[in-house]
Specification:
Structural class: alpha+beta
Helix content: 10-25%
Distance between the termini: 77 Å
Order of helices and strands: HEEEEEEEEEEEEEEE
């Protein structure tokens, strides 16, 4: 009887020892599966969308003397309800090494003109060179309204002291009619321009948005 009891205890111990690594392996494998599944769920690629890149029209030019504001409306379906990442502007003339201008962002009113300013803090930039310049808009909660957004460049100082001109935004041709406008900074009323080739020529300004 004593021998049988000893054998049973030894046999049970061996059974536990043999099963332990397998149980640990199962637990580890389960943990790995859970971790891998979590990584798979949380990884998400952010899609970026750019608006149309116009072709430059060298024979068209728009001279701006400070202080003045020039802007465009973006209301394409591809940009509404998206987060604004960057604004891209083509400068064809740069008079000084360091010239600071301001970007203003507005909602669009019922008159299809800038209405309420969307950016609460100042967005001041300088063009690095002639050609396309990209300016990041670091406002995480800025979602373009369903009516679209008005992007306005505010030239509040002279860059060419002899003529009073500012760094010049190039004019380009778009595939469809664009809505752009101008006003002296001291005035409230906008002047609307749509006479250049049925409104298809305007300032070379683009948006980069994120889903």
């Amino acid at each position: 009887m004593k021998i049988k009891i000893i054998y049973f205890v030894i046999g049970l111990s061996l059974l536990l020892v043999e099963n332990s690594p397998a149980q640990e392996k199962t637990n580890i494998d389960s943990a790995k599966s859970i971790i891998l599944e979590e990584v798979k769920i949380t990884s998400k690629k952010i899609a970026a969308i750019e608006t149309e890149k116009p072709s430059r029209k060298k024979h068209y030019s728009f001279l701006t003397k400070a202080p003045t504001q020039i802007g465009m409306i973006f209301n394409e379906g591809q940009v509404v309800n998206k987060r604004l990442n960057s604004i891209i502007i083509y400068f064809e003339k740069k008079y000084t090494q360091i010239y600071t201008f301001q970007i203003l962002l507005f909602s669009i009113g019922i008159d299809t003109l800038p209405s309420k300013q969307l950016n609460k803090r100042e967005l001041a930039f300088s063009a690095n060179h002639e050609g396309w310049n990209k300016f990041p808009i670091q406002i995480n909660d800025l979602i373009i309204p369903k009516e679209g957004i008005a992007v306005v460049v505010n030239f509040f100082d002279k860059s060419n002291m002899a003529t009073g001109e500012t760094d010049r935004i190039a004019m380009g041709k778009y595939s469809s009619k664009k809505h752009f406008f101008l006003r002296p900074t001291s005035q409230n009323n906008w002047m609307i321009f749509n006479s250049f080739q049925e409104g298809r020529i305007g300032p070379m300004i683009r948006l980069l948005v994120e889903e």
